[in-house]
């Protein structure tokens, strides 16, 4: 009986050493694990509606998801495989430096990025921004209050014009 009492803990210890040693090899081989971000899919959450207007004529109404909190702004539309045509994300900026933090890292879809000033007027549209690319920092003469991200090509299709198109959202 004493031999069994001594052997059993030794067997457990050997098994644990084998398990720990083999798990180290698994973690070293990165092919064994998938990037969690590649499996993640975040769904669109409608927070409101945005109206795009040229000279008081509504040219398009879209559903918007708001990015107001720091984490929402950091993530934006990342980890999304698609965005329906009549949707977008509206970033509510607290200060002038925030627009420079927008990037396309971990993006899966190309976008048009619409910069909007404190008068709710579109002042610049960066068209067909490819996923996973760095965005060059732009300098604007007027403070940026909002950024609207929409599917690539929609700014042309909807007739968004710099200095003319205004937004209103509810």
TrEMBL record:
Keyword field contains Mitochondrion: no
Which Gene3D superfamilies does this UniProt record tie to the protein? Protein of unknown function DUF192 (2.60.120.1140)
Give the Pfam families listed for this entry.
DUF192
Q: Which InterPro entries match?
A: DUF192, Saro_0823-like_sf
The UniProt keywords, alphabetically, are:
Membrane, Transmembrane, Transmembrane helix
- Transmembrane parts of this sequence: 6-23
Its recorded name reads: Secreted protein containing DUF192
């Amino acid at each position: 009986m004493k031999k069994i009492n001594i052997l059993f803990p030794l067997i457990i210890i050997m098994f644990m050493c084998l398990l720990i040693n083999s798990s180290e090899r698994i973690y070293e081989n990165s092919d064994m694990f998938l990037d969690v971000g590649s499996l993640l899919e975040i769904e669109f959450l409608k927070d409101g509606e945005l109206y795009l207007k040229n000279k008081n004529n509504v040219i398009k109404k879209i559903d918007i998801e708001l990015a107001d909190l720091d984490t929402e702004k950091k993530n934006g539309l990342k980890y999304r495989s698609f965005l329906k045509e009549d949707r977008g994300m509206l970033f509510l900026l607290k200060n002038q430096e925030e627009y420079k933090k927008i990037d396309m890292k971990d993006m899966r879809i190309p976008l048009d990025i619409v910069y909007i000033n404190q008068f709710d007027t579109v002042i610049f549209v960066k068209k067909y921004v490819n996923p996973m690319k760095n965005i060059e920092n732009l300098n604007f003469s007027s403070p940026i209050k909002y950024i609207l991200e929409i599917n690539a090509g929609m700014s042309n299709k909807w007739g968004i014009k710099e200095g003319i198109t205004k937004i209103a959202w509810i």
